[in-house]
Design brief:
By secondary structure, the chain is of the alpha+beta class. It has a domain at about 45-195: Aminopeptidase (3-Layer(aba) Sandwich), CATH 3.40.630.30. The chain has six helices and eleven strands. It has an eight-stranded mixed sheet with strand order 5-6-7-8-9-4-10-11. Strands 1-3-2 form a three-stranded antiparallel sheet. Helix 2 crosses helix 5 and helix 3 crosses helix 4 (about 105-110). The longest helix has 15 residues, at about 80-95. It starts with 8 loop residues before the first strand and ends with a helix.
Protein backbone atom coordinates (compact mmCIF):
# COMPACT_ATOMS: atom_id res chain seq x y z
CA UNK A 1 0.00 0.00 0.00
CA UNK A 2 1.32 3.44 -0.90
CA UNK A 3 2.30 5.46 2.17
CA UNK A 4 0.21 8.56 2.82
CA UNK A 5 1.99 11.74 1.80
CA UNK A 6 3.33 13.67 4.78
CA UNK A 7 1.86 17.16 4.94
CA UNK A 8 1.18 19.71 7.68
CA UNK A 9 -1.03 22.05 5.65
CA UNK A 10 -2.63 22.39 2.24
CA UNK A 11 -3.60 25.39 0.14
CA UNK A 12 -5.66 25.65 -3.03
CA UNK A 13 -4.97 28.88 -4.86
CA UNK A 14 -6.27 30.29 -8.12
CA UNK A 15 -4.61 32.78 -10.46
CA UNK A 16 -1.28 32.60 -8.62
CA UNK A 17 1.72 34.43 -10.03
CA UNK A 18 5.37 33.46 -9.72
CA UNK A 19 5.92 35.72 -6.69
CA UNK A 20 3.06 34.00 -4.83
CA UNK A 21 4.44 30.59 -5.77
CA UNK A 22 8.00 31.43 -4.72
CA UNK A 23 6.66 32.70 -1.36
CA UNK A 24 4.72 29.47 -0.87
CA UNK A 25 7.83 27.40 -1.57
CA UNK A 26 9.74 29.54 0.95
CA UNK A 27 7.16 28.46 3.55
CA UNK A 28 7.62 24.75 2.89
CA UNK A 29 4.86 24.26 0.31
CA UNK A 30 5.32 22.32 -2.93
CA UNK A 31 2.97 21.80 -5.82
CA UNK A 32 1.05 18.54 -6.14
CA UNK A 33 0.05 16.52 -9.17
CA UNK A 34 -3.54 16.26 -7.94
CA UNK A 35 -4.91 19.61 -9.10
CA UNK A 36 -3.67 22.89 -10.53
CA UNK A 37 -3.10 25.41 -7.74
CA UNK A 38 -3.00 22.75 -4.99
CA UNK A 39 0.03 22.94 -2.70
CA UNK A 40 1.05 20.80 0.29
CA UNK A 41 3.26 22.00 3.10
CA UNK A 42 5.72 19.21 3.81
CA UNK A 43 9.28 18.55 4.96
CA UNK A 44 10.58 20.16 1.81
CA UNK A 45 14.20 19.87 0.67
CA UNK A 46 16.04 22.52 -1.34
CA UNK A 47 19.52 23.56 -2.38
CA UNK A 48 20.66 27.13 -1.86
CA UNK A 49 22.47 27.37 -5.18
CA UNK A 50 24.79 30.10 -3.96
CA UNK A 51 26.32 27.44 -1.70
CA UNK A 52 26.30 24.57 -4.20
CA UNK A 53 29.49 23.12 -5.62
CA UNK A 54 30.05 19.65 -7.03
CA UNK A 55 31.58 17.27 -4.49
CA UNK A 56 33.68 14.20 -5.25
CA UNK A 57 30.66 11.84 -5.26
CA UNK A 58 28.76 14.13 -7.65
CA UNK A 59 31.77 14.19 -9.97
CA UNK A 60 32.08 10.39 -9.83
CA UNK A 61 28.49 9.97 -10.97
CA UNK A 62 28.93 12.63 -13.65
CA UNK A 63 31.93 10.78 -15.03
CA UNK A 64 29.87 7.58 -15.36
CA UNK A 65 27.29 9.52 -17.40
CA UNK A 66 29.51 11.74 -19.53
CA UNK A 67 27.36 11.21 -22.63
CA UNK A 68 24.07 12.14 -20.90
CA UNK A 69 22.51 15.19 -22.56
CA UNK A 70 19.95 17.53 -20.96
CA UNK A 71 17.32 19.59 -22.77
CA UNK A 72 14.79 21.84 -20.99
CA UNK A 73 11.42 21.78 -22.73
CA UNK A 74 8.43 24.05 -22.10
CA UNK A 75 5.05 22.36 -21.58
CA UNK A 76 2.82 21.29 -23.23
CA UNK A 77 5.40 18.86 -24.57
CA UNK A 78 5.82 19.09 -28.31
CA UNK A 79 6.40 15.74 -30.03
CA UNK A 80 4.76 13.84 -27.17
CA UNK A 81 4.36 10.11 -27.81
CA UNK A 82 2.90 7.13 -25.99
CA UNK A 83 6.43 5.90 -25.20
CA UNK A 84 6.75 8.66 -22.60
CA UNK A 85 3.80 7.60 -20.46
CA UNK A 86 4.69 3.92 -20.93
CA UNK A 87 8.22 4.61 -19.68
CA UNK A 88 6.86 6.58 -16.72
CA UNK A 89 4.18 4.06 -15.76
CA UNK A 90 6.64 1.16 -15.96
CA UNK A 91 9.18 3.07 -13.86
CA UNK A 92 6.76 3.98 -11.07
CA UNK A 93 5.12 0.54 -11.03
CA UNK A 94 8.46 -1.26 -10.72
CA UNK A 95 10.03 1.16 -8.24
CA UNK A 96 7.04 2.05 -6.08
CA UNK A 97 4.19 -0.36 -6.87
CA UNK A 98 1.21 -0.59 -9.20
CA UNK A 99 -1.06 2.42 -9.16
CA UNK A 100 1.60 4.89 -8.02
CA UNK A 101 1.39 6.87 -11.26
CA UNK A 102 -1.01 6.07 -14.09
CA UNK A 103 -0.25 6.47 -17.78
CA UNK A 104 -3.19 8.88 -18.11
CA UNK A 105 -1.87 11.10 -15.28
CA UNK A 106 1.57 11.24 -16.89
CA UNK A 107 0.04 12.19 -20.23
CA UNK A 108 -2.05 14.89 -18.50
CA UNK A 109 1.01 16.37 -16.77
CA UNK A 110 2.89 16.65 -20.05
CA UNK A 111 0.05 17.95 -22.21
CA UNK A 112 -2.74 19.60 -20.20
CA UNK A 113 -1.21 22.73 -18.70
CA UNK A 114 -4.63 23.97 -17.55
CA UNK A 115 -4.71 21.01 -15.12
CA UNK A 116 -1.05 20.76 -14.14
CA UNK A 117 1.27 22.85 -11.95
CA UNK A 118 4.31 21.76 -13.97
CA UNK A 119 5.37 24.16 -16.72
CA UNK A 120 8.63 22.60 -17.97
CA UNK A 121 10.23 19.21 -18.46
CA UNK A 122 13.86 18.12 -18.22
CA UNK A 123 14.51 15.63 -21.02
CA UNK A 124 17.60 13.41 -20.92
CA UNK A 125 19.10 11.58 -23.88
CA UNK A 126 21.95 9.23 -24.64
CA UNK A 127 23.08 8.26 -28.13
CA UNK A 128 20.23 10.37 -29.58
CA UNK A 129 17.63 8.37 -27.62
CA UNK A 130 15.50 9.85 -24.83
CA UNK A 131 16.06 7.75 -21.70
CA UNK A 132 14.74 9.97 -18.90
CA UNK A 133 12.33 12.77 -18.05
CA UNK A 134 11.53 14.95 -15.07
CA UNK A 135 8.59 17.32 -14.77
CA UNK A 136 9.37 20.68 -13.24
CA UNK A 137 8.06 24.04 -12.15
CA UNK A 138 10.47 26.82 -13.15
CA UNK A 139 10.26 30.57 -12.66
CA UNK A 140 12.83 33.38 -12.51
CA UNK A 141 14.12 32.40 -9.06
CA UNK A 142 13.27 28.75 -8.32
CA UNK A 143 13.11 25.29 -9.86
CA UNK A 144 11.07 22.39 -8.48
CA UNK A 145 12.46 19.09 -9.77
CA UNK A 146 9.50 16.69 -9.52
CA UNK A 147 8.39 13.25 -10.74
CA UNK A 148 11.52 11.96 -12.49
CA UNK A 149 11.48 8.69 -14.38
CA UNK A 150 13.94 6.90 -16.62
CA UNK A 151 14.77 3.70 -18.48
CA UNK A 152 15.43 1.05 -15.85
CA UNK A 153 17.39 -0.99 -18.42
CA UNK A 154 20.26 1.47 -18.10
CA UNK A 155 22.96 -0.13 -15.95
CA UNK A 156 22.24 0.45 -12.26
CA UNK A 157 25.88 1.18 -11.52
CA UNK A 158 25.54 4.33 -13.67
CA UNK A 159 23.17 5.87 -11.05
CA UNK A 160 21.17 7.49 -13.84
CA UNK A 161 18.58 8.99 -11.49
CA UNK A 162 21.24 10.88 -9.56
CA UNK A 163 23.03 11.90 -12.75
CA UNK A 164 19.78 13.43 -14.01
CA UNK A 165 19.29 15.33 -10.75
CA UNK A 166 22.89 16.63 -10.79
CA UNK A 167 22.47 17.97 -14.32
CA UNK A 168 19.24 19.76 -13.32
CA UNK A 169 20.97 21.32 -10.29
CA UNK A 170 23.85 22.54 -12.44
CA UNK A 171 21.38 23.93 -15.00
CA UNK A 172 19.53 25.83 -12.25
CA UNK A 173 22.75 27.33 -10.90
CA UNK A 174 24.10 28.29 -14.33
CA UNK A 175 20.77 29.92 -15.17
CA UNK A 176 20.81 32.16 -12.10
CA UNK A 177 18.16 30.50 -9.95
CA UNK A 178 18.27 31.00 -6.18
CA UNK A 179 16.94 27.60 -5.13
CA UNK A 180 16.18 24.20 -6.60
CA UNK A 181 13.57 22.23 -4.65
CA UNK A 182 13.95 18.43 -4.62
CA UNK A 183 10.54 17.50 -3.18
CA UNK A 184 9.94 16.10 0.30
CA UNK A 185 12.27 14.14 2.54
CA UNK A 186 10.13 12.20 4.99
CA UNK A 187 11.41 8.62 5.01
CA UNK A 188 14.69 6.73 4.84
CA UNK A 189 14.46 6.00 1.11
CA UNK A 190 14.82 9.77 0.52
CA UNK A 191 18.41 9.69 1.80
CA UNK A 192 19.78 9.60 -1.75
CA UNK A 193 18.87 13.30 -2.00
CA UNK A 194 21.20 14.24 0.87
CA UNK A 195 24.53 14.17 -0.94
CA UNK A 196 24.66 17.74 -2.22
CA UNK A 197 26.32 20.89 -0.95
CA UNK A 198 24.02 23.73 0.10
CA UNK A 199 21.10 21.59 1.31
CA UNK A 200 18.36 23.03 3.51
CA UNK A 201 15.18 21.33 4.80
CA UNK A 202 11.95 22.81 6.08
CA UNK A 203 11.38 22.09 9.77
CA UNK A 204 7.61 21.89 10.11
CA UNK A 205 7.80 22.25 13.90
CA UNK A 206 9.69 25.54 13.89
CA UNK A 207 8.46 26.69 10.44
CA UNK A 208 12.05 27.54 9.51
CA UNK A 209 14.72 26.18 7.17
CA UNK A 210 17.50 24.14 8.73
CA UNK A 211 20.93 23.10 7.47
CA UNK A 212 21.33 20.33 10.09
CA UNK A 213 21.48 17.13 8.06
CA UNK A 214 22.19 15.04 11.17
CA UNK A 215 18.89 16.18 12.68
CA UNK A 216 17.11 15.44 9.42
CA UNK A 217 18.62 11.95 9.18
CA UNK A 218 17.45 11.22 12.73
CA UNK A 219 13.91 12.21 11.75
CA UNK A 220 13.73 9.98 8.69
CA UNK A 221 15.47 6.88 10.09
Amino acid sequence: MEQEYFKTDQKLLTNVNEIDISELYAKGYVFTRVKKGLFNQTRSLRINLENFELNSENRRIQKKNEDLQLEVRKLPYRDYSWEIHKLGKDFYSIKFGDGTMSASKIKELFLETDKSNANYCFTYSQDNKNIGYCLAYINSSIVHYAYPFYDLNVAKENSLGLAMMIQAIIWAKVNGKQYIYLGSVTESKSKYKLQFEGLEWFDNNTQTWSESLEELKALIN
